[in-house]
TrEMBL record:
CDD domains: Ere-like (cd14728). InterPro entries: Emycin_Estase, Hydrolase/PRTase-associated, UCP036794_erythomycin. This is Erythromycin esterase. It comes from Actinoplanes auranticolor. SUPFAM superfamilies: EreA/ChaN-like (SSF159501). It comes from the Bacteria. Transmembrane segments: none annotated.
Length: 394
């Protein structure tokens, strides 16, 4: 078995990884097995630099708040603000504190400084404004969309009517609603009316796209469409929060990845003429297979953003999963994929999943000591385009 694994592996390099990817990609998903371990965003930075310099990539998108990401993009694209401000305002989930994310923005800004705007690298988040303790309210996105349209169209709703329907933001962001659907306002009469209003505003944005783009800019229209996607996605998510059904959490997991998939599709559409996009997130958000998770004793399963994106981009999406061997006292058993990969003589390796046939079906899924780490399922390696293995992490 070890000899076969060595035949499937080579030392990590950007070129080694690129050699396993199919041609014609517009979106490359790079997953990480756990958050908060710098080895994986550092690896991402190395891969992104290679893709930019050798494969024509011009954008990167992260599992981070899509609205917050506008601040980081403004910094790397046009030098607006400071690096510290871009990190503090441009990320969610605490990712702005990551040294690797600081280095990513610093390098992107330095790369862009001497290039014309059409050739500059772009940054975005593709997650919704969804933190652990609950989603943001739809107000900021919905009012920004309304204000953009009101500057050019006669709307049947005033800003005052919109504000009255929204009410105070605290109604939407009550942390108790995360676990108690009765505390959510997502199915109130006002919320239902807001869902119709948001849908109508988005239709106006679409039907008047030629005039609006000419009067403003392509970037301004795209930003307004981001507000529209975010507002409608958040209102759907809040409706799911208010659902008392036993399937509530499973529905919310699927709704979050649907928001991610919509954002990925929009990013690919915007970037199509400039080059492919690298997307970086947890493996479970980018894999092609149905995602599985145990939550409070309940088995959850939903289709990931990567799986949805793959159906929208036939032949243009690839997924690379990352995993690791040893972390402190957590050593993978020898009959797991990570255990077998640990026999490789490389600190970091690129694995060709196509050469794991006959090996993976002899292996068991790893049960890690750390519940925040989601191990690769050996049975699904045939759906991967490549695996990057890191032997030891801190």
């Amino acid at each position: 078995m070890t000899t076969s694994i060595r035949d499937a592996a080579q030392p990590f390099s950007g070129g080694a990884l690129s050699s396993l990817l199919p041609p014609g990609l517009r979106l490359l998903g790079l997953g990480e097995p756990t958050h908060g371990v710098e080895a994986f965003p550092e690896l991402r930075n190395e891969i992104f630099r290679h893709l930019v310099e050798h494969e024509g990539y011009r954008s990167i998108t992260l599992e981070s708040d899509c609205l917050a990401g506008l601040a980081a993009d403004a910094y790397v694209t046009d030098g607006i603000g400071t690096l510290d401000t871009a990190l503090s305002q441009g990320f969610s989930h605490g990712f702005g504190a990551s040294p690797a994310n600081r280095e990513l923005l610093r390098w992107m800004r330095a790369y862009n400084e001497q290039r014309p705007r059409p050739e500059r690298l772009r940054f975005s988040g593709f997650d919704g404004p969804l933190e652990v303790m609950g989603p943001a309210g739809p107000g900021p996105a919905l009012t920004a969309l309304h204000d953009y349209l009101a500057g050019h169209l006669d709307l049947p709703w005033s800003r005052e009517q919109l504000d009255q329907l929204l009410g105070p933001d605290e109604r939407w962001t009550d942390p108790a609603a995360t676990m108690d659907p009765a505390r959510s306002v997502g199915r109130s009469p006002e919320a239902k009316e807001l869902r119709l209003l948001a849908d109508d505003l988005r239709v106006l944005l679409s039907t008047h796209a030629p005039d609006l783009t000419a009067a403003t800019s392509t970037d301004d229209w795209w930003r307004a469409d981001l507000y529209a996607r975010t507002a409608t996605g958040l209102l759907r998510y809040h409706a799911g929060m208010a659902d008392p059904a036993p399937t509530r959490v499973n529905t919310l997991m699927g709704l979050r990845d649907a928001i991610m998939a919509d954002n990925l599709a929009a990013i690919v559409s915007r970037e199509r003429r400039r080059g492919p996009t690298l997307a970086f997130a947890g493996n479970r958000h980018l894999q092609r297979d149905r995602s599985h998770l145990q939550f409070a004793g309940l088995p959850l399963q939903w289709w990931s953003a990567g799986a949805i994106a793959g159906t929208r981009l036939p032949g243009e999406y690839a997924f690379v999963a990352t995993t690791f061997g040893t972390r402190g006292s957590d050593v993978p058993p020898p009959d797991t994929l990570e255990g077998v990969l640990s026999t490789l003589p490389y600190a970091r390796a690129v694995i060709d999943p196509g050469r794991l046939a006959g090996i993976a079906d002899q292996l068991k899924p790893r049960i890690p000591a750390d519940h925040t780490y989601l191990a690769l399922d050996p049975a699904t390696t045939g759906r991967l385009d490549a695996v990057v293995f890191v032997a030891t992490i801190g």
